[in-house]
């Protein structure tokens, strides 16, 4: 049989959530197998299962530090990619629910989605998406924090609602140290 079987062929009933599958594959393959590839400036970058695990775990602890609770909703607004994927798995691992929104939507199109879903957090790509949410900030009071992963153009923004992903992850490091194993425990508790 081919050694490089796909993960989906190897998944079992115990791996009924994506965070569980991530954890299992990290334990099986760590840095020995590539989980994801992303092309940047014409060059393929490879991310192992350990890379993905560490990214998801870091975002998880940052979100927990902000107060993410099971059942909370988190909007992800931006182009699909690695950070979206890692953020989605981190929210799922914490028991949260993810609502993906296209970055092509205008503030007037985004507003009713937020008003209906009542998310506590928004994970957004860049200045363009931040600006859209700040335009409707007064109409979306359920949002407690807007976390952006691309910091370009946002350095001089002072709205306390805003936080960079890097700063959120850094703030979550203390939680990660004080609650060793909490990510793995939370993932094990989750069900599909």
Report the CATH topology name of the domain at 51-180: Rossmann fold
Strand content: 15-25%
Biggest sheet features? 5 strands, parallel
- Please list the strands of the largest sheet in the order they lie side by side: 4-3-5-6-7
Low-confidence stretches: 1-6
- The radius of gyration over CA amounts to 17 Å
Task: State the secondary-structure class.
Answer: alpha/beta
Total count of strands? 7
- The tally of helices reads 8
Q: Rough shape?
A: globular
Query: SSE string, helix = H, strand = E?
Result: HHEEHEHEHEHEEHH
Q: What is the residue-averaged pLDDT?
A: 91
Q: What is the CATH class designation of the domain at 51-180?
A: Alpha Beta
Separation of termini? 30 Å
Q: Report the CATH architecture of the domain at 51-180.
A: 3-Layer(aba) Sandwich
The share of residues in helices is 40-55%
Which structural traits does this protein have?
192 residues, Rossmann fold, alpha/beta, 5-stranded parallel sheet, disordered N terminus
Walk me through the structure.
- There is one protein chain.
- The protein has 192 residues and is of the alpha/beta class.
- It has a domain of 130 residues: Rossmann fold, CATH 3.40.50.980.
- 46% of the residues lie in helices and 18% in strands.
- The protein has eight helices and seven strands.
- The strands form two sheets. A five-stranded parallel sheet has the order 4-3-5-6-7, sandwiched between helices. The protein has a two-stranded antiparallel sheet with strand order 1-2.
- Helix 2 packs across helix 3 and helix 3 crosses helix 7.
- The longest helix has 18 residues.
């Amino acid at each position: 049989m081919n050694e490089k079987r796909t993960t989906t062929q190897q998944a079992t009933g115990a791996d009924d959530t994506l965070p569980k599958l991530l954890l299992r594959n990290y334990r099986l393959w760590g840095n020995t197998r590539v989980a994801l590839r992303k092309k940047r400036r014409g060059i393929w970058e490879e991310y192992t299962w350990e890379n993905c695990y560490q990214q998801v775990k870091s975002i998880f602890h940052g979100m927990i530090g902000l107060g993410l609770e099971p059942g909370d909703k988190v909007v992800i607004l931006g182009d699909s990619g690695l950070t979206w994927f890692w953020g989605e798995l981190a929210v799922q691992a914490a028991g949260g629910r993810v609502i993906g929104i296209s970055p092509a939507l205008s503030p007037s199109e985004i507003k009713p989605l937020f008003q209906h879903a009542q998310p506590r957090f928004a994970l957004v790509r860049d200045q363009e998406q931040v600006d859209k949410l700040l335009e409707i900030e007064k109409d979306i009071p359920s949002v407690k924090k807007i976390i952006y992963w691309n910091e370009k153009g946002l350095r001089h923004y002072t709205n306390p609602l805003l936080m960079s992903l890097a700063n959120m992850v850094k703030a979550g490091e203390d939680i990660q140290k004080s609650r060793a194993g909490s990510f793995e425990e939370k993932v094990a508790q989750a069900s599909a």
